[in-house]
Design a protein that fits this description.
Elements lengths: L15 H21 L12 E2 L10 E5 L5 E3 L2 E3 L1 H11 L6 E5 L5 H13 L5 E3 L2 E2 L1
Parallel strand pairs: 1-7, 2-5, 5-6
Antiparallel strand pairs: 2-3, 3-4
Helix pairs in contact: 2-3
Length: 132
């Protein structure tokens, strides 16, 4: 006597629609992650041109002066009186200070900001330039 199976044997199927959903989700995730990894400086300055070596990838302390002589410390606006305290708070012994001054910024404003950073303990300054 031959018994019939209670269930008919079916072959498994791979559904493609959920795979497409997962791929779109991964694509969107990687796009957002790559945008978050971009280093975007909020202070817009026109840098002078010149030749220089590339800097290391660690985040340096940035002191920027724009064309209106406004001073920014790590993209946050500060007054000249606040530069010394801000640099003292943010500066670590192994970090350098990058000066990003607009090409049309007054030299006196840049020098005063650098002197305030020097009083706060900054020893090494780099001048940011635009590569030719």
């Amino acid at each position: 006597m031959k018994f019939k199976r209670s269930r008919a044997s079916k072959r498994g199927r791979i559904e493609i629609i959920p795979m497409i959903d997962v791929m779109f989700f991964l694509l969107a995730t990687f796009m957002l992650a790559s945008l978050a990894m971009q280093r975007l400086d909020a202070v817009r300055v026109d840098l002078p041109s010149g030749q220089a070596q590339h800097m290391s990838e660690d985040q340096p302390l940035t002191l920027a002066v724009d064309r209106t002589n406004a001073i920014f410390l790590n993209r946050r606006p500060v007054h000249l009186d606040q530069v010394e305290a801000g640099v003292r708070r943010l500066l670590r012994p192994d970090r350098n200070v990058v000066i990003a001054a607009d090409d049309s910024a007054a030299q006196g404003a840049v020098v005063q900001a650098m002197l305030a950073a020097r009083r706060a303990g900054a020893e090494h300054f780099f001048i940011a330039i635009h590569r030719d």
